[in-house]
Amino acid sequence: MGRLFETFSLDELRLRTSEKWTHYAVDVLPLWVAEMDTPPLDAVVQTVDKHLRAGDTGYLNGTNERQYMESCRNFCGRHFSFAPNVEHARLAQDVITALTGVTHGFLNSHSDLTDNNAVKGVVVVSTPCYPPFVRRVSLGFEIIDAPLAEDYHFDLQTLESAFEKAQRLATENKTRALYILCNPHNPSGTVPTRVELEKLAKLSAKYDIAVLADEVHCSLIHPNVEFTPYLSVTGVNAGETDAVSFQSASKGFNLSGLKAAMAIPSASQGAVDAVANAPGELLASAGQIATLAHTAAFNKGDEFLAQLNSEIAENASLAGGIIAHKFPNAKVTQGGSTYFLWVDFSAYMDIARAKGYDSMTKFLIDEAKVAFTNGENFSLTGNEFRSFVRINLATSRQLITLALDRVGSVL
Ligand SMILES: Cc1ncc(COP(=O)(O)O)c(C=O)c1O
Fold it and tell me: What is the 115 CA–ligand 1 centroid distance (Å)?
């Protein structure tokens, strides 16, 4: 296999019609939304081709549904030595829809929906946090922030006081509270250790907080880094606390346009019920072709992923090196997973401000013609992380270098 990220030229990538390649004007280099510039996995192409040509484009049947869940279970077994029980799992169109559905499944059944003044559920998140957790999943619920520490790992004291507050508010309003865990973490790429997750599990038991673990990036773990599935953690694996893992082949294999995902509850009755109670209009099932494509990816993508992760790690060192050289006062975080680099350009904000910008990302789009993802989107208010950018490294070394050269021409 040649280098995946060097397969397509810039001109070829510009022929793509997806969001990444069409949102900005053609003079802007797009290193933003979570899409990868890789070729597809052959097994996915063959599967989609075979079923499309056969006209097999009807409704998803139970066998294909089961096989997708089993392919995910087996994938986890091979990669993390932990195969979750998928007996009570449910499919959804995508991870955010699944998270939204299960959040409602948890909170609606524990809340007094007739009392208009009552809080209908409490959701704890940790900023910087993937924007749809707040803008979609938790809409209509009370949101409490438990910001991560400076190294983007948990700050256990902060987490505990947020859980205590969440439990108090939930009790006063006769409702329930939950925490959305991003494991591994987008945007920083940090991978919580087993010990950290055990501490989280203990806090969740102490304050009766259900944990919804978004693990969609779990296949994007850099070489020699260990990922711990939340459902495998002591206490959680015995079903002592309510937890649900959210999985999909969408991120690891660049299949976001082929929508399929699943919610896998822990053995606790509360988690099983929450998944079962997720409203059908939110947890609508996945598509037939998408499910078959994801199954092929989970079953046949190990070699592709190994190559991908080593190229991503190399891209991270390339970008980190260029940034350290060109912008020595920028703070770079890359915690060993995902294809993101989270960069704080606070030391350079004066340059952006002098041009009338209070957002580094907006400044760089207009002035350097490079689009990264807006740091402020990862805050609750839109006011924090204005000097931060999230760089998408799932591209060629040439485009990473070109993008950072352009940044260098204005900073
Ligand atoms: C942490 C996280 N969760 C969910 C998603 C979106 O997944 P889906 O397209 O399956 O909703 C993303 C996409 O980048 C993500 O980073």
Answer: 33
